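Good day; I would like, with your permission, to put a structural problem before you. A protein sequence and the structure tokens that stand for its backbone fold form the material at issue. The record follows directly beneath this note:
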Amino acid sequence: MNLTPEQWAMGAAAGTLIGFSKTGMPGVGILVVPMLAHAFGGRASVGLMLPMLIFGDVFAVAWYRHHARWDRIGRLLPWVAVGMGAGAWLLYVLGEQHAHKDQMNVIIGWLVLAMLGVHLARLRWGEQLTPHSRVGAAAVGTGAGFTTTASNAAGPIMALYMQSMGFRKQEFMGTTAWYFLIVNVAKLPVFYLLSLATPDRPLITGASLLVDLAMLPVIVAGALTGKWFLPRVRQSAFDGLVLVLSGIAALQLALG
């Protein structure tokens, strides 16, 4: 994979933000999705981003592993698997098509905008939206599984679910860390099989894995920075900036 200087720069910025989001500021992760889609194309970016996310998940689990609520994770996983199946089907169908324009760019743009809408709704009507029932958990799990498989953008849905549990800060980080590590590792064989099924438009290749490996130092730097930075920044100001930048990037993708 021969990258342009812009792609290297965007990849490094994305890696830094992934590490940062996994250990200190979960909300910033939504910005990475449209960034990579813009730089690499929607389909390629989905496969490129996954190993980077797993690197970041490992650091998050290392720091917060003792604080997970496994009962809540177990409640979601069967429904996440259903959503992952739907997301994998979409990636397969689009991989079989040979349109001139990468349709994943548009889909990722609209999914990110939808996730930003979920985030804003959570801020405004959090208590009314929290999914306490089994039906709510099923909807969250299915939606998160589909979104994370199709675009790696399930963060806002999971934030809504975790908020409904009334977790303390450490429990929130630990449960989220383990959840995303499990789900992202489970996506690896799915993406590999999809790459075999659509060899003209693979999600993961040897070249993309080399790029992921090259991004490991910046992911580590981002993770260390996030751990240090979290207690030192006003959350509301930071989240506002992330929402604005993510919205602009997602609109650019969605509208082409």
